[in-house]
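Support request from a user on the community tier.

User writes: "When I paste my structure tokens into the form, the page sometimes reloads and wipes my input. The last time it worked, I copied everything first. Here is what I submitted, just in case something in the input itself triggers the reload:"
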């Protein structure tokens, strides 16, 4: 179980090393099916927001950055097959 958690943490850390530009939101993403101006945050621009959800049997971890107009921009995503014990 510790090995699985360690592997998961490494996968998330490595995924953070490479940001893919212009990621498209998935069902479950904070910005899925919304226009850019429909979801705004009171957080300061530059703040990072984490989101995690289950999509097609896989765990998805996303990072958003609050923009100067207080909208969210999806900047990073990693997908993990399962969290087995």
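"...and here is what came back when it finally went through:"
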């Amino acid at each position: 179980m510790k090995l699985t958690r360690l592997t998961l943490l490494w996968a998330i850390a490595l995924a953070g090393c490479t940001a893919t530009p212009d990621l498209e939101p998935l069902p479950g993403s904070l910005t899925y099916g919304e226009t850019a101006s429909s979801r705004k945050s009171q957080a300061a621009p530059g703040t990072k927001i984490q989101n995690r959800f289950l999509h097609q049997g896989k765990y998805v971890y996303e990072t958003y950055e609050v923009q100067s107009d207080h909208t969210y921009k999806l900047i990073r995503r990693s997908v993990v097959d399962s969290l087995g014990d």
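Agent notes: The reload is a front-end session timeout and is unrelated to the input. The chain has one domain: 2-80. The chain is about 15% helix and 30% strand. Escalated to web team.
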